[in-house]
Structures are given as structure tokens and as C-alpha cells.
Design brief:
Order of helices and strands: EEHHEEEHHEHEEEHEEHEHHE
Strand order of the largest sheet: 8-7-6-9-10-13-12
CATH class of the largest domain: Alpha Beta
CATH topology of the largest domain: Rossmann fold
Radius of gyration: 20 Å
Number of strands: 13
Number of domains: 2
Shape: globular
CATH architecture of the largest domain: 3-Layer(aba) Sandwich
Length: 305
């Protein structure tokens, strides 16, 4: 497309690759343009106003896997400017401390790795909460966060890097992608990038928001892009993608990744296993959480200890 270098029109599903999709919602409808301008002013100091004519925000949905995405997407430089100018809608202290549940989950992953002092890459670590939880669970942690404004304070529990060159050639027993893939222009490219840090039996943990169970409930598209109170699950252009359980599975397959065996999921993540089991009958119970390995990867847990 014309305009800012690097902007693009995404005309095939970023998850499954399908070519058939339909418009879900567009900025020209029902006074949404003014709501976006209000959101842009509060969140980004008016930055998004410059992009309205060029990008004409429009969300489409795949007919095959249900994946949602912005058909026209900003360039990498525009996204960097957006994140650098972002501010919270409600002023509140940002916690860098992990919750007890985060610590329990990292302890579980450390056991599943079958190693002592396993290595973990927290890719897109944000303010470092999951990286801290992993370090306290016994991992040797590298955290990659492209924004130098996040996690800029002194870090003692893990190694924080802002450039991929700093971890070039390194392999990890566990890679964590917590709320990352919805932000990146090309989720498949990101999965292939992190696979470059896989060893022979690396475990990949992925979680993304589920567009089938949005915080906005049934009014999810009525309230887009901003309801005057909170950031939308598909707020322009913070979340470029809305995943479904089916689209996350399709994306993993395209990347050459396979889910861990179901017995292993049931043993370590019984709630996630239950959601998978009932999804064919109750689709809204499906989960956009996944534990993945390279296809054909041996199952270390069978031989651990």
C-alpha cells in the first residue's frame, strides 16, 4: 500500500494462511472515528490521528479458523513510536512482582523441563514479572524486551536484553511467550524466530487473549475501538490480532510445532486439558493457552529422574 514505508495490507489469514475473510468492523461506521480520536489523545497524545486516513482501521475475520486481524497495519517504525508515546488510561503503579500463580506455573515448567537449573527465554518480557517468577522457580533466565523503557531499572534476578544480537546462538529448555503474539505484525515470523533458540527438546509456552471470550462480552464490536473507560481487546494498534483456539492451533502447525502429548498436559495443566476436551462440544470453553514442542521432539518427562 502507499504511504509510510513499511505499512502493509494483510490479505491472507496470518494464522492459518486462508484467503477467505470478512469485514468485522471498520472505523467509518457509527461514529467510531471520534471515539478513536478520543482514545488516541488519552493513550498516545493524539499520535494515531495522523494515521487515520492512511490506515483506515478495519478488523477482518478468517472464515476458516476465526482469527481476527487489522487488515492494514502500521510500519515497524510507527509501532515503535506508538509504544514509546503510550501512557496508561488510569494512573496506577506498575507491579514488577510476580503473583503466586505465576510462581507456581514457573515451578511446574521447571519440573516439566526435566533439568536442574534449566534455561528460560522470556521473549517480550514487558516489566519482567514472568522473568522474575521463572528465576525464583530455579530457571536461569534471559529476558528479551525490545522496549528499553520497560524493565529499565536494575535487574539482579535475570539477564535483561533489548537487542536480539545479545542472545544470538543461545538455546533454552523453555521459551515463554506470554501475551506477545497478539502485538506483533507477523506471528508466524515470531514463532520461527524463537525456534532459532530451541534445543532438541525445548518446551514453548504460549498464551494470547481469546477473542471468543473478550472482556467486553457480547458488546465487543459495539464498543470498538474505545468505550470511554478501558482499552479494548483489539485496541488500535496495540493488539494487531485476535486469536481463537483454532487459529492458535493453525498457527502452531504452520510453524512446525506440535502440542505436548495430552497425557502430559492433563498431568501438569488439568484445567487446560479440560478446556481442550470440552471445546468440540462447547467452543467458548476453548483456550488460547498452549504448550508446544518442535514436531517430532522427544518427550523428556518420560525419562526425567
Amino acid at each position: 500500500m502507499n504511504g509510510h514505508p513499511g505499512t502493509r495490507s494483510v490479505d491472507a489469514c496470518p494464522a492459518c494462511g486462508g484467503a477467505d475473510f470478512r469485514r468485522r468492523v471498520a472505523i467509518e461506521e457509527d461514529g467510531r472515528r471520534e471515539r478513536l480520536r478520543r482514545f488516541s489523545e488519552l493513550k498516545y497524545g493524539g499520535l494515531l490521528d495522523e494515521w487515520l486516513e492512511e490506515l483506515r482501521p478495519e478488523i477482518v475475520a478468517c472464515d476458516d479458523c476465526g482469527h481476527h486481524w487489522y487488515r492494514r497495519q502500521p510500519s515497524a517504525a510507527q509501532l515503535s513510536r506508538m509504544y514509546a508515546s503510550g501512557r496508561p488510561l488510569v494512573e496506577a503503579a506498575v507491579s514488577r512482582e510476580p503473583t503466586p500463580d505465576m510462581l507456581v506455573e514457573m515451578q511446574r515448567l521447571a519440573r516439566m523441563s526435566g533439568r536442574r537449573a534449566p534455561r528460560l527465554l522470556d521473549f517480550g518480557s514487558g516489566f519482567g514479572r514472568w522473568a522474575r517468577a521463572a528465576a525464583r522457580a530455579g530457571f536461569r533466565v534471559h529476558a528479551y524486551e525490545p522496549s528499553a523503557a520497560r524493565g529499565a531499572e536494575t535487574v539482579e534476578e535475570f539477564t535483561l536484553v533489548h537487542e536480539l544480537a545479545a542472545i544470538a546462538g543461545m538455546q533454552f529448555e523453555v521459551v515463554n511467550l506470554e501475551q506477545v503474539l497478539e502485538h506483533v505484525p507477523d506471528p508466524l515470523e515470531t514463532l520461527r524466530l524463537v525456534q532459532g533458540h530451541f534445543g532438541p527438546d525445548t518446551l514453548l509456552r504460549v498464551r494470547v487473549p481469546n477473542i471468543n471470550r473478550p472482556p467486553e462480552g457480547p458488546g465487543v464490536w459495539r464498543d470498538w475501538p474505545y468505550d470511554g473507560r478501558r482499552v479494548h481487546i483489539m485496541a488500535p494498534f496495540e493488539h494487531l490480532h485476535g486469536f481463537t483456539p483454532a487459529s492458535l492451533r493453525a498457527l502452531a502447525r504452520r510453524a512446525g510445532l506440535a502440542p505436548v502429548p495430552r497425557w502430559r498436559l492433563a498431568r501438569n495443566y488439568p484445567v487446560a486439558w479440560l478446556r481442550q476436551a470440552v471445546e468440540p462440544v462447547h467452543p467458548r470453553w476453548g483456550s488460547t493457552f498452549a504448550l508446544l514442542t518442535s514436531a517430532g521432539t522427544p518427550d523428556r518427562e518420560q525419562h526425567a529422574h
